[in-house]
Design goal:
Helices cover 25% and strands 22% of the residues. It is built from 16 helices and 36 strands. Helix 11 crosses helix 16. The protein is globular. 42% of the residues are buried.
Length: 679
């Protein structure tokens, strides 16, 4: 190497490699042009003392890493236009004032009834020190006699308000043991010791109003408690929530019918609960949230904290308490999220009938021509399978209202069973389990995070909660015209009910109140007979009024809007369980298609004995011989014996409703009773 010139050596098959003077590498070339100056020692340097700058992009506008992180996130503000006469208090105020009013409303919700003020609240995650102010935050003045100042009054409670699914994922993964992201992106979580509802621990405040309006006594799901005990449990829940560093607050809606929408607030301690309710309730837009104001109903979910078993009316460490006068619900001693969903459903079963709106535990879908059908059925009857039809739009899978405006879904999501779930059997549910979905109590592979839906190690009651828009053929908004068909599903394991029957109005009321299905015998040794199950209005655990009240409203709406009632048996034919065979799903689908098309309305019918059901003589695609169950039994004497046995079970179940008089002079009650089995 001479004269300071670089030499070239060849390597890698003749590719020249540059070797700089004195064995050094040459200056790094950047994408921009570089001007060089000759130094005294003969080396080339650019005009910046040898520092190589890449100016292909402007430098970041941050001086510290914290500033850089703050630039990563942006805040989108609501842009609700102010309408004349609307009187919207939030629409013309600053972000600071809007947040102050929101926190004031939440502080009022969390106010103790024995102290003068609500808790000091600040928005944000307590893990971020910058979110805790050095000055007093918003607290709500509650003018009742002061007993003492608690430690919680000296601290801030951070409010995580209407967080997005992504934010709730972060909270769950960081702070809630047993939370994992599955291979499909869902959030898998655990509900603790309780993996199902606790109906024996559900209480409703008994007062002058509810004493007259609600259904009490034998057969009723409503177990009474007094006002004082409710307030004791409320105070316990509120004190627990206020003692935490942070609480999750969801402000959302029930009922897609905007005229009859209910505003609900859910205060909880777990990200899992917040995401669950985010999915199950109707999610407000930023503009709707801007003017949310005071909720119509509030849930205090302190499920991680037990109730006091020495408190009057308490029978365990769990208590789920509903106070209709205060418009509040308190949850203690159970983290099972379904308690919130069904608690709100019970609320709607009380509020909606007072507005002459029928609340229904049913699935609902709609044809392209606007033909709406309601599907009622207990577990195992095929309600989810039959109401999910790719040729029809899904309005909802579980909870609905029927008003003078038509039908509307109460919820904003679906709560599907996951046990033995497969892509082949339930492709819509399978595909809905993705980012944003909550998976409850499932078992997953430790490394791949793939879910084993057949594993019952935690519970058989594994569930998925996801927004309804995750279903491809969901109708958004979830509303429809008046139903043309009301389909009551029964899985008759006795094998004596016909595959399909057309019902009169009184028969529809009778079978609606009965809510019948039959469960296949369990695994206990020696148990071989089917077991009849009756659940009034196909949802006895959630109704608040007497079942005949809902049945009368159903009949009135069916008569007014021209709907037809049908009883469809998805169970056994040719003998009871263990002798006959289950009716093929393909045949049941043909029957449902014939109901939707209207062709069954013009079919020829004959009447069965004992139950007096009208059954068609033929349906396209269904063997005629199975339409009359007696034809499918080889032993006719056994058929009649089993038929009379089932009829007796119906009659015995209905005894609890027989003395409740509705209609003028009780005529409607007598009409319903006459529609039952006659033998």
């Amino acid at each position: 190497m001479e004269g300071g010139k670089a030499e070239f050596s060849f390597a890698n098959g003749g590719v020249p490699a540059v070797v700089s003077p004195r064995g050094r590498l040459p200056p790094i070339q950047t994408s921009r042009s570089i001007s060089f100056k000759k130094t005294k020692d003969g080396e080339d340097r650019d005009g910046n003392d040898g520092i190589c700058h890449d100016d292909s992009t402007p430098p970041v506008k941050a001086q510290t890493i914290d500033e850089l992180h703050s630039l990563q996130k942006k805040r989108s503000a609501p842009t609700t236009p102010v309408k004349d006469g609307q009187g919207a208090p939030f629409a013309t105020i600053s972000d600071e004032e809007r947040q102050r009013l929101q926190l004031q409303s939440i502080s009022a919700s969390l106010a103790s009834l024995t102290r003068e003020t609500g808790p000091k609240l600040v928005k944000g995650d307590p893990a971020r020190k910058a979110d805790t102010p050095k000055i007093s935050a918003v607290h709500h003045h509650y003018f009742t006699p002061t007993i003492s100042v608690s430690d919680s009054a000296l601290k801030f409670t951070h409010v995580l308000y209407n967080l997005s699914p992504a934010e709730l994922y972060e909270q769950a993964i960081k702070y809630e043991k047993g939370s994992f992201i599955t291979s499909t992106g869902a959030l898998a979580t655990l509900s603790g010791a309780k993996t199902g509802r606790a109906p024996r621990d559900k209480r409703v405040v008994f007062d002058e109003t509810t004493a007259e309006e609600l259904w009490w006594g034998k057969g009723s799901p409503n177990i009474e408690m007094d006002e004082h005990t409710f307030l004791v449990n409320r105070e316990r829940a509120v004190d627990y929530l206020n003692s935490l560093d942070k609480v999750f607050v969801n402000d959302q809606f029930l009922n897609w019918d905007p005229v009859h929408q209910i505003k609900v607030r859910i205060v909880s301690a777990r990200a899992y609960h917040s995401l669950f309710m985010h999915n199950m309730c109707i999610r407000p837009t930023p503009e709707e949230l801007e003017n949310f104001g005071t909720p119509d109903f509030t849930i205090y979910n302190a499920g991680q904290f037990p109730c006091n078993r020495y408190t009057h009316y308490m029978t365990s460490s769990t208590s789920v308490d509903l106070n209709l006068a205060r418009k509040e619900m308190v949850i203690l001693g159970t983290q099972y999220a379904g308690e919130m969903k069904k608690g709100l459903f019970s609320l709607m079963h009380y509020l909606m009938p007072k507005r002459q709106i029928l609340s229904l535990h049913s699935g609902c879908n709609m044809g392209k021509d606007g033909n709406v059908a309601l599907f009622f059925g207990l577990s195992g009857t095929g309600k989810t399978t039959l109401s999910t039809d790719h040729n029809r739009l899904l309005i909802g899978d579980d909870e609905h209202c029927w008003s003078d405006n038509g039908v509307s879904n109460i919820e904003g999501g679906c709560y599907a069973k996951c046990i033995d779930l497969s892509k082949e059997k339930e492709p819509d549910i399978w595909n809905a389990i993705k980012f944003g979905t909550v998976l409850e109590n499932v078992v997953l592979e430790e490394h791949t995070r793939e879910v084993d839906y057949s594993d019952k190690s935690v519970t058989e009651n594994t569930r998925a909660a996801y927004p309804i828009e995750f279903i491809p053929n969901a109708k958004i908004p979830c509303v429809g015209p008046h139903p043309r068909n009301v389909i009551l599903l029964a899985c008759d394991a006795f094998g004596v009910l016909p595959p399909v029957s057309k019902l009169s109005l009184s028969q529809t009321m009778y079978h609606f109140i009965s809510g019948y299905t039959a469960l296949v015998a369990g695994t206990e040794e020696g148990v071989k007979e089917p077991q009849a199950t009756f659940s009034a209005c196909f949802g006895a655990a959630f109704i608040m009024l007497h079942p005949t009240r809902y049945a009368a409203m159903l009949a009135e709406k069916m008569q007014r809007y021209g709907a037809t009632g049908w009883l469809v048996n998805t169970g056994w034919s040719g003998g009871r369980y263990g002798v006959g065979s289950r009716i093929k799903l393909a045949y049941t689908r043909k029957i449902i298609d014939a109901i939707h098309s209207g062709s069954l309305l013009t079919a020829n019918y004959k009447k069965t004995e004992v139950f007096g059901l009208d059954i068609p003589t033929e349906i396209e695609g269904v063997p005629s011989e199975i339409l009359d169950p007696m034809n499918t039994w080889q032993d006719k004497a056994a058929y009649r014996e089993t038929l009379l046995k089932l009829a007796g079970l119906f009659r015995k179940n209905f005894e609890v409703f027989a003395n409740y008089k509705i209609g003028k002079d009780g005529n409607l009650t007598e009409e319903i009773l006459a529609a039952g089995p006659n033998f």
